[in-house]
Fold these 4 entries.
Entry 1:
Amino acid sequence: VFALLPEVSHSVFTSMVSGCAGEGEGEACPTAELPAPAPTTFTDVLSPQRLLRRTTLTLTGRPPTDAQRAALDEAADDAARAVVLDGVVEEALASTSFYEQLVAFGHDWIKVGRYTTGAQGEAYWGHMSGSLFPCGADSIYAGALYVSGDASMSDDPADVCNGLAWDRSGALADVPVVELEPWWAPGTTVRAVGRAGFQTRTHPSRDGTSTTVCGLYEGVYFTAGLRDDANNAALPACSCGPNLLYCSPDGSGFAQANSADDNMQRRMAWDEPARLLAHIAVHGRPLSDLVVGDYSVGPNKLRHLYLRHARQNPANLQLDDNTFWKNDTDVLADPLHDSRDPMAWREFKPSDVHPHLLAERDYHYDPRTTTEESRGLPTAGVLTMMGSQSAFARERVRAARWLEIFACKDFVPPPATQEFSPFDVDPATTGTCQHCHTLIDPVAIHFKRWDFGGHYIGPTPMMPGIGPWLIPTDYTASQFPYARWRQSYIPNTVLTPITEEELAANEYARFLEFLPEGQSVFGAQSDGTVGPLGFGKMLVASGEFDRCAVRRLSERFLGRDLDPAKEAGYIDALVEKFVANDRQLKPFVRTLLREPAFGRGL
Ligand code: HEC
């Protein structure tokens, strides 16, 4: 079953292209008279040199090398040429440029916006850490790091960088400089001055009645600092913790508002979905891991983001001794870095740095039958990433985006002639809204639990109902997102299938996050798994993921999208091959390159 292309004749344009085909990189197009257009029939195939060129451009973004072109010229017959081309394909699939092409493809396919949490625009504190700055060149401890921020007790560089602690009572005290191995550069040391280097994890509170737990951040406006109740240098004060884990070396909120720098954590959160796709592809994992996998990839700074979020729950104090940052074992990583390099896109399990992103694959939690706290959400590839959950800020938006990305759905208005029941509260069952929300809302139910304030000066990203992320008693008066939860999660709707009584018994019943029995998504039933993974499983079980993946891969590697209305049989045939090869990308790309449509050029 092959795609049939309409018969085409050579245009002047294609003649021009073939006129330069086969020339080396950087060589000018021949200026001689253009050859007369060759008569074209449906069975025309690309010349071997042009097929070679299309192959390397498709896989690596580069033209063939002189050696590859010469080898093809020297091949005596079709069989020998096929051997050369197969070799070129294998070399390309193993190249670092193929990995780079996959990252770009990942950004095209899985388009997520910026990791927007924290003050946006001119400032940023989405790292949820104290901000470190280097002491000025003219200070005694030039280059050493001190912690500052606009929301808490700050160290003044004029003093700490010169060996003195600033004391709000006016006295000055000696401050030592310490050498530490920082979490972002294992195996090296940095100097820290002032509170940054104290390594204090807790201290007696200022009024002496309790213990202050360090390691929480506080952000008010431009630059996040450390939350602390100490207000003068004579009192015990919080620090940047062991190996400076509570702090970030990326400097001010202004610096981090820049999301175009590869070195910045914020950029990494945007990059993560595309990097996971490239990782899955080059290491031969099933592409369905994009939506059901329990692992991701990330440099030290990205893994630190997950750990910092989890650490905002003071119950997770054990994270202070987490050694994720040491990179002391070899693991799979991107082909451009040694896996121990802190900039490597190292494979990791979010559950290892974030106790509420669960490794278990079938976690079920029903707030109608328990008032115990939920333990969290099972990791589900790109669906549970910080960047994507934040960029797609609410449950229905997430549902719509993932349906577009992984089920190739378009949400278009119903025809004007279609009649609907009158609208009444639930867009999934009433009004014109049903046209889209019958699909969106049963998916959105899985995306309620992770909330990113994401507003100008919003609260910490939160997993409602877990640890400190509770609904405040005064939440009607208080700001986002609490009021929105009440407005959006209305009992007796598809999005919130609970009764008024169940809500009265447990406020957190609103966050019910699995599809009740009897309902389905694309004909697939829920196995009770909560959160995004519950949806990911249904997406894969229904076959929608495979059909959409095959279309996206065809678009990228064959050169055109397939039309489900006219080419359903062809899509099915390709899906069969995709699934038979365990949904791996490379074998499927080989399949596509052997398609006659690829050999005919565009
Ligand atoms: C043509 C399809 C379509 C129709 C019809 C439709 N919606 Fe939506 N709705 C969407 C999509 C898609 C989203 C996700 C928003 C986005 O794309 O960012 C959405 C989002 C929403 C949201 C969440 C908004 C947010 O930002 O969190 C609400 C509430 C909503 N729709 C209510 C309704 C109601 C009420 C109706 C009927 C009066 C309706 N919708 C009709 C497609 C539709």
Entry 2:
Amino acid sequence: VNLVHLSNVFLFRSARAGLARSAALAAVAGLAMAWSCVAAMAAATSSVVHGDAIAPATANALWSVDPAFPGADLPPAGRSLFDFLVMQGDAGRETADVPFPFSALVERIATPRRAGAHDAAPVRAVLIPLGRSLQRSAAAPDFFASPRVVVSFAGETRGPGGAEVALRDRLYFGYQPRANVIEVISYNEAAGRFEFQIVSDYRAGGRAKVRYARRPVCIACHQNGGPIFSRGLWSETNANPRIAAALLREKSRFEGVDVARGIDIPDAIDAAVRRANRMAGYQWLWRNGCAASATRDGEIRCRGQTLVAALRYRLSGRQSYDAAAPEYRELVRGAMAGLATAQRGAGLALPDPGLPNRDPLLDHAIGSRSANDYAAVADVAAAYDPLTPRPALEIWPFADPDFVARQLVAGIAEFFTDADVRRLGDQLRAAAAWNGAPRRDVTLACDIGVTRREAGQQRIAFACSAADAGTQRRAQLQGTLLVDGVRIYGGSVERLGFADDGAGTDALRNIAIGGGTFRMRRGEVVATLRVARDGTPVRRGDGHAVESIRLTWVPPHDAAKAAAPALRARGAATVTLLEDFAPIARAVSALERSTQEGTSDALSAQPFRRASVLAALDREIGLPPARWCCVDDRALPPPAVEERAALAIDAGEEAGEERVFHRYCALCHRSDDPAPPNFLNGTPAQVRANLAHCAQRLHVRLAMWERTGSERTKTPMPPLATLHGAGISESAWRSAEDLSTLRGYVAKLLRADGARQGGTDALLRANYEQLRECLPRAG
Ligand code: HEC
Ligand code: HEC
């Protein structure tokens, strides 16, 4: 069997077992070190099998993205969408050019750089003064003077060189002006994952620097490896009237974002985040699901037939594709059925990108504190904390291969933009005109109901059907038509279904009638309807175009009856199909062959890449090459990564106890970055001083391991997923000697500073935000 990725999965399992052992045995093998080796390996695949003791939340299911394995900081392949947008000038290689202020950056991205069919891409932005992000305390105590701005994009644009760039669901900003930092999450097409980046020194007169972030830090909260967001009602945002009122006391606009906006905007961001969250699941099925077929040939053809079905589905307006086609059943559904038998666990678990709704001002109103002191309400209780591990949002059960195959097809379909689909439709139509694609008529019998309105207007309802003797299915056509004299001016086809094999499983619905003609011919009424979606032909689930629909009926001979306000008649419908999908089916077959021969990698076990697939299809169809974004990164300057601070521990000066901090905490708390607090940065003496300053909060975060679940008021440290990544289970950690060492060290610090620090139990009862800050504030 050649299950590339799945064998990686097993490689992982043994690698991790090895790590668990080394963590237990070796004294100096730091978590950070174990980590970097896991991270390097994680670059090879995107998910791992869960050991039973390790992931109670998703017993026996695989994660589409596993928070225990964030992957390498730098992209394992390709680059982020953001890099392509800010680093690639029209002339090629350039350094990052991130316009300031923020509104200029957003506008630059949304505005197409070359004229075309595009308007500016829609931008959705909210303001979050008291949030849960890594930047949440940067503006303290003036939270409302400098709210965080969160931005997502919809639609598509034209980027450098005029290439079309899909922005929808793929690019997000989190900007806190006080921190001079923009956090960026954007999709990496070639690697099939979201990248986490930081733009630092982002201010007037600054030299903005773009770096890949320390991924383990981001993934501690972004457990799904992508964007996360509050669930409705989004009470942290300016959609909450009380938040908006407090912001309006400062300004009516921040960074180009109006305070006075309703919940439709956070709702749209939430929806984008949810869609983005599923991309990893689709990629997993594309790579590993197809790899569960019995042969390599089957694996490649599974991807080819998924692609055909996905294109049909999009061309039909996301309404139908042929789930009964023999190739689809054998190759796509068949491969997914292989997942259940290949002992891949019970299903694919999708992480939860949603955080419980939190209203930071709820307590503020009731309390007697001064109206402008928000420090106390800034605290994030464990139940609301994005650091708290979230159980799977849903599990796609491998026992239901029809369902899993449907997820895959509908998901791959979402990687194409609306413009891609329009363009493909246009190409098919042009090729049909050129090649003389065959036409075919389908006839149905109809009930026609005519209602006359004032001034020669009529409303005509039609309900047609025809049985197909071969398949026992019925073709059907239902809708209404609005006629003014001899002109059809509106109406819609509510349902259009076909009985023939291959037509697609589901009927087409809600097709607008865009016009047509209405006339009498030899005593018969002939209505010819023009149907289209977005200016391109309506297509059914086999990809073929519905070229026209003609209705005919004979009105009563009696003139008085014919002019009655309402009448019924029997009639007929002829649906003319233009069978023009063949070039795509042929191009995909050719792509399957070239992937088998190794001359293309479009259908290989790599992530699904829209640009590679469309470019290859164009080639096979014989179209001139177009410019595509964002797979080929040769024109970009090399990527930069956020530096981790040097290992002071190498000097060997650390006492044993401080080493334990380095081992478990350095991954996230030793860097030049102030968030999360970098208390392990500096010389051994500085680190000791930092730990002493942070002692109160260290105590709380470590003491939380004594409690479980809902008894925890704060999230314990280190994050559970990090322990899992090193092969340490929660129960093992709670009784680990290293944990007592850490706690003992902190207890000593607190005792040494007794009077000022307060009793340890009092610390656990106090409002966390009113404890001494972990590190003194800079400046
Ligand atoms: C302490 C938890 C936490 C950490 C750690 C964290 N984030 Fe976030 N992040 C959030 C939360 C919560 C949101 C959504 C609400 C908000 O922005 O206030 C968010 C939102 C974002 C957004 C806006 C898009 C979205 O997901 O809604 C970006 C971009 C972002 N984070 C980037 C990063 C990067 C890059 C890192 C690593 C350097 C990081 N985050 C680390 C909690 C965190
Ligand atoms: C995988 C990354 C990661 C590791 C490993 C990690 N932390 Fe954290 N830590 C974070 C993040 C993220 C935050 C949240 C910051 C926030 O809420 O804004 C945090 C917050 C904290 C805080 C609270 C800081 C404050 O200002 O309130 C303390 C204390 C802390 N960690 C201690 C530790 C200790 C001790 C260890 C090791 C035993 C550790 N952490 C390991 C990521 C990590």
Entry 3:
Amino acid sequence: MSQTGNCSACRPSALFRIGLWLFILAASVWGGRWLRATMQDRAAEAPAVASVEESDSNHSARAEFLYHTLCAKCHGPEGHGDGEGITELAQRPRDFAGDRWRFPKTKESIRQVIAEGIPGTAMPGSKQALSAADVDALADYVLVLAERPAPHHASADARRSPSALERALEAAGFRPVPPRPAPPLTVVRTDGEPLSLAELQGTSVLLHFWGTSCVHCLTEFKSLHELENIGRMRIVSICIDESEPESVEAVGRVYAGDHPLYLDETGLLAHRYQVQTLPAYMLIDPHGRLVANRTGAGAWSGNAVSGLIDQLTEGER
Ligand code: HEC
């Protein structure tokens, strides 16, 4: 007698299914533990990396550094609860910028949560790993993130067709991301001239992260000249592996021609913009919102980029 179409021997037995569930359960518990453990290791390293004096701007720079090293993995770079580690968590952290917090949105309560953690959840307590001053600074930083505007706000762009923009982004080799205000950015040109993103409002900006030890980055400067010739878009090339202007010039200038080269003096930009591979490109629209990224070296199409800038500036004219 044949059993075509319904092979009972092929179905997982109840025992096997229970085993599978146990495995998944163990894996997710282990994932949470692993995240906690790495976070505690990093906390132990943190003071050595950024030993700073007690001043207001250092207080917040250190807080931002600690946040990116210890918290962003789960809470996301801007605190929207979208860190890369959340796939391993049983529950997703809430958006700091949203209204639905579990605990009061006050400094005292946040400090308590950071120090003690939230028992029964993946939120780890840090009082063993961090000094009271660091917990304090982190609580301030969480409040800063909580007050930043929410990622989506429809306004002038309701008129623009998102799919047309998305098509233009993809044609130019970009990966569209949900538009959100670009993280703060201040850089310094190799001749000492500072530049901030705020000065570039009203223009499309291509942030170009590169490194002196990245061969692809260096050879790609040539095609960036062609993009620059199209005009109407500001290309800001930021070196993230050297902090001395002379070293950036010594290597970069050979390839970059007269293209301006910038340095990240804070060392925080790669964290803020989640740069993982070089070269990395982040596209900011004239409203100051991050709309897409692109990683790795590749051919640029002048026509596709022109079309894209048309899309981005539509409604500006
Ligand atoms: C392993 C992942 C993970 C890490 C690392 C982590 N958190 Fe959390 N955090 C969570 C989760 C999950 C919650 C939500 C728990 C719940 O369901 O209430 C949370 C909740 C919070 C809350 C409470 C928000 C509310 O809704 O009331 C604050 C504040 C917070 N975290 C701050 C931080 C800070 C600051 C750091 C870094 C020092 C950090 N967290 C590190 C996962 C994490």
Entry 4:
Amino acid sequence: MKNISTVFLTGMVCGGLSAAAAQLDLSKLPPASTQKDVTYAKDIRPIFEASCFRCHGEKEQKNHLRLDSLEAVLKGGEDGKVVVAGESAKSVMVIAVARLNPKKAMPPEPRNGRGRRGEGERGPGVQPGTNAPAAGAEGESHNERGRPMMPPPKPLTAAQVGLIRAWIDQGAK
Ligand code: HEC
């Protein structure tokens, strides 16, 4: 049984090679806004409400992350904290909304066809052939192809990202 030690050694050497961490270019982050007294309730919640609650709110909590209360934002998600108070450039949240890493950009790119899709596609799929009473509330969002009726959330603007940075840099209150 001389070989066994060789096998073990080889295994250990190979296992030692770990993937180098992906480098993100933090200089591409939009600068923090100069606005004073940025607060979650006043400035940040409305941004999240428009672009994020759909997947990180009452109904769905992707990554176990809720963004609809300050406590929940600070608590973070499945992979831990997303906000490092005082250090916006180190906050996963900022990296995500600034879309530095396309695979982790938030809100995510809409994907048609292949690719990862959030489970639980919402939106009342219009059933062709069903004589549903006129969907009055939905107004102009027709879709003959059965696509989800909700438009995908737009990426945040540089100004919005800057405001989120200012909020975090000021202590995420
Ligand atoms: C269409 C659904 C959807 C929307 C809208 C959305 N997210 Fe997400 N979010 C996800 C999913 C799915 C994940 C977990 C999988 C992943 O990391 O790609 C996630 C994960 C995250 C994470 C954790 C990333 C990490 O690496 O730990 C953060 C932070 C986040 N989202 C912030 C936001 C913010 C801020 C918004 C609004 C500007 C937003 N998300 C909008 C689906 C969404």
